[in-house]
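TASK: fixed-backbone design
INPUT:
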């Protein structure tokens, strides 16, 4: 019995000592989450490092399919249907594979998402979208492989990939305008509140839609707001100026300026001061 207890103690101690030793992964896992417009985009991938090696054309051969990272498949998830380089792609998760060349990369969005390395048998029917991305040369080395979401607008962005001194970008579009317009239509057909009028007015103005309608909605929002904040007045002044009523815009901007001074907001003080000077000069 004593021997069994002693053996168990040794095994436990050995396991405990082993569990205490932790070392960093050579290609650590990374997760990128970004909202583009109203669409959630998530990228799960591993990040290998240069470690003094030549990457493209050597470690990653030109013209051969690459897993676009390390370890398990690199995956991207879209919460909505999107367009990738003009191609319709359904909401869901896709693996990303690439064929790097010196001046361009072929980029594939593949429906199989479980596995590591590259598929043993490539199935063209599983390619949800593919495109060619131009290679841009960076002025400095990027030590670890990095995926980014760049150049965002309310309705689009670029999926960026960079390593060593190479950068490529794949454009994609999200259905922001379709979703917002449907929401505005539904809300305005019901019982909209001041915040709804305000949000709809700002969206119409920022997306260069019907500025007359934006002005009407903003006036309605402000009339139903007991004490408009400086940022709300700022938006009203921009819409008034865009609608061609510079006199009203200046008057509203002055109100915004005073409230910004009371709040100690230097950014809005600067913006309002510059806008007032600009509109007075015209």
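OUTPUT:
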């Amino acid at each position: 019995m004593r021997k069994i207890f002693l053996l168990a103690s040794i095994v436990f101690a050995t396991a405990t000592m082993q569990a205490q030793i932790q070392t960093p992964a050579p290609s650590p896992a990374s997760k990128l989450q970004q909202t583009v417009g109203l669409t959630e985009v998530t990228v799960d991938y591993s990040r290998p490092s240069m470690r003094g090696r030549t990457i493209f054309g050597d470690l990653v051969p030109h013209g051969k399919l690459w897993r676009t990272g390390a370890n398990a498949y690199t995956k991207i998830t879209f919460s909505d249907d999107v367009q990738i380089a003009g191609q319709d792609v359904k909401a869901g998760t896709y693996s990303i594979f690439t064929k790097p060349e010196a001046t361009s990369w072929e980029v594939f969005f593949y429906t199989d998402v479980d596995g590591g390395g590259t598929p043993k048998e490539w199935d063209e029917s599983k390619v949800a979208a593919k495109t060619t991305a131009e290679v841009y040369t960076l002025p400095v080395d990027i030590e670890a492989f990095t995926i980014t979401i760049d150049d965002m607008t309310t309705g689009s962005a670029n999926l960026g990939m960079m390593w060593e001194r190479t950068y490529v970008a794949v454009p994609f579009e999200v259905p922001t305008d379709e979703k917002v317009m449907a929401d505005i239509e539904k809300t305005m057909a019901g019982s909209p509140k001041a915040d709804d009028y305000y949000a709809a007015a700002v969206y119409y103005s920022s997306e260069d839609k019907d500025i007359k309608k934006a002005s009407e909605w903003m006036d309605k929002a402000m009339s139903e707001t007991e004490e408009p904040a400086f940022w709300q007045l700022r938006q009203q002044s921009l819409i008034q100026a865009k609608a061609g009523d510079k006199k009203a815009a200046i008057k509203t901007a002055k109100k915004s300026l005073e409230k910004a001074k009371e709040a100690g907001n230097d950014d809005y003080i600067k913006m309002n001061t510059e806008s007032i000077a600009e509109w007075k000069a015209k």
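COMMENT: The radius of gyration is 27 Å.
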